[in-house]
Amino acid sequence: MPQAQAEPGKAAATDPLAGAILAGRVLLATLFLIFGFDKLSHYSAAVGYMVQTGAPLPPVAAVIAIVAELGLSVTLILGVFTRPLAVLLAVYTFGTALIGHHFWTMTGLDRYLNEINFYKNVSIIGGLILLAVTGAGRYSVDAKIGRA
Predict the structure, then answer these.
(1) Coil, strand, or helix at residue 3?
(2) How remote is the C-alpha of 127 from its chain's centroid?
(3) Counting Cβ atoms within 10 Å, is residue 80 exposed (0-12), middle (13-18) or buried (19+)?
(4) How far is the C-alpha of 48 from the C-alpha of 98, rounded, in Å?
(5) Average pLDDT across the chain, whole number
(6) Average pLDDT for 77-101
(7) How far, rounded to the nearest angstrom, does the alpha carbon of residue 63 sit from its chain's CA centroid?
(8) What is the C-alpha to C-alpha distance for residues 110 and 64, in angstroms, rounded to an integer?
(9) Domain locations in the chain as residue ranges
(10) How far, CA to CA in Å, does 94 sit from each of 12, 15, 24, 125, 132?
(11) pLDDT category of residue 147 using cuts at 50, 70 and 90
(12) How many Cβ atoms from other residues are within 10 Å of residue 51's Cβ?
């Protein structure tokens, strides 16, 4: 007889998926945490990068990037409001792919490198969608307050 499976995001205490969901949250958030902190630490360079990529209102775009990357990465690691914030971070990541990695307007090595980064963003979006579907899992603030 098949074993009953735990509802996604609500793993039983012995369910190995709980640890995998935690690892996935941490790994997905790591990229955003590192680069959000880098943008905060080197704000003028972040603004310069926003100018280079053609982002609208570069100083405002840099602040949005810092808040999105640092703030949302910490909330995902902790598992706070995970489902809606994973969707929000996926939308943000799609926006950064369109604004920062518009490879279709480039040629040569720039096109190649930006195409790689564009599709890496698309892959990250896939992971964030999975997180939005599964929820934060057992090891999260969401689980502690009954919202996993």
Answers:
(1) coil
(2) 8
(3) middle
(4) 18
(5) 91
(6) 96
(7) 17
(8) 25
(9) 17-144
(10) 33, 32, 19, 7, 15
(11) confident
(12) 13
